[in-house]
Amino acid sequence: MFLINKHNNKIEKISEKTFTELGFKERENLQEWLADNPMALGEELLIIQKEFSGFNDTNERLDLLALDKQGNLVIVENKLDDSGKNVTWQCLKYASYCSSLKKSQIIKIYQEFLDKTNSSMKAEESISDFLDGIEIEEITLNSGLTQRLMLVSGSFRKEVTSTVIWLLNYGIRLQCFQVTPYALGEQLFLNVEQIIPMKEAEEFSISMAEKTQEDIASQEEIKSRHVIRKKFWNEVINKMNGKSDLYQNISSSKYNWIGAGSGVRGVGFNFSATKNYGRAELYIDRGDKNENEFVFDFLYNKKEEIESKFGGKLEWERLEGKRASRIKYEDRNFNIFEPETWESTIENITDGMVRMEQTLKPYLKDINKKVKAL
Q1: What is the count of structural domains for the chain?
Q2: Tens digits of residue pLDDT in 87-126
Q3: Most CB within 10 Å of its CB: which of 12, 45, 130, 241?
């Protein structure tokens, strides 16, 4: 690896090092780096446990346990400069143990991890947010034989790569990542390179407890939820159309939100409803975190003026660490699956949406001019 020096039009070699040479440890360093920034492995992962040992009849510990964006369990096994001979077998064992984990167990495992880190977050809410806001009852976790394996090491022995490539032919979902530290003066760099992509894992049964039908949510229940939502959104749209033209051309939906444009790309006047709240919001997601924060901060700097015109308090959520932001007006005395709560909440959130649109539209016109100039 070389560093480009633009000033003298030359390249400078960056020295390849070993973790041992630099004094780094497997658990204290490499594992913590990946837990803190799992995007180093090429995708969004939610780390739900470190040094997990909750298996029946064995004291073995896997390094990192994660969820991917499809709700599959991902087992990450780390080695430093040398993979050793047995890492593939070790990882396969962990996958077999994890294949029996139910959704309720996964949530419990993650909550224990959050509690250990003194986080106030709730596992169910965090998983729901990670899986794009799908309600926890509709989320499928660790379905069937979808477990994935990731091996991370500074180098892989032929015994390992040969076995991994053979396993590829049997559909096991396994990836190998080669990690290499580099040094340039006092600066240290880490290169993470996927060298072997693999597929779906085969089941090996050492059960934490008997797996039930919980891994796949009842399709009938999901269909029922979709019917209820479509009916609810029809009523919201009908009520809204009696007050404003904003939702004149918007159709009902089976999802937990519907939205209308604001005149600014990536900024919408959305309704959202779950078993815990009904909400009117300005949702900001232009596909770029910096642009989202620019729009949010522009409005937040005029918070007192906006809330005075709105006629009440709004909740301002910049959502640090996430791409999107929102300004919301929320009714928490609501459950979309309890129709007896609908009438007052629909009146409340449609009134809030009308006032929100009337209040924010002039500011959004100014924002539209400014973001085009970014």
Answers
A1: 2
A2: 999 999 999 999 999 999 999 999 999 999 888 889 999 9
A3: 45
